[in-house]
Design brief:
single chain; 4 helices; mainly alpha; Substrate Binding Domain Of Dnak, Chain:A, Domain 2; 103 residues
Length: 103
């Protein structure tokens, strides 16, 4: 089961980074996809951490979906990383979460 502390920590860190990126990109034109993916990613990371913490039988399946969502969010945020510290931090947190969720 993917209930390792590193997976949980990565999910929580990713949730925080996605929320910050969401708030930042909400004010910027042309970042609709980034906003949507950050919201999805933050939500799934929070749920993944919760299910992992309680040892849910569904944690492994959700971790796989979380990794997929984080990959998509990292790809989108990377497009804006040069111009946005929040997007850069989000992309990095998402990549770490992918690695932790695939362990």
């Amino acid at each position: 089961m993917k209930n390792s502390q590193s997976c949980i920590d990565a999910c929580v860190a990713c949730l925080i980074a996605c929320e910050k990126c969401f708030a930042s990109c909400l004010e910027m034109e042309g970042r609709k996809d980034c906003v949507k993916l950050c919201r999805d990613c933050a939500d799934i990371c929070g749920l993944c951490a919760s299910l992992s913490l309680r040892g849910s039988q569904f944690a492994d399946e959700l971790c796989a979906l979380c990794a997929k969502c984080c990959e998509a969010c990292a790809a989108e945020c990377s497009k804006h990383a040069e111009h946005s510290e929040e997007c850069k931090a989000c992309a990095e947190a998402c990549k770490k979460c992918v690695d932790a969720c695939k362990m």
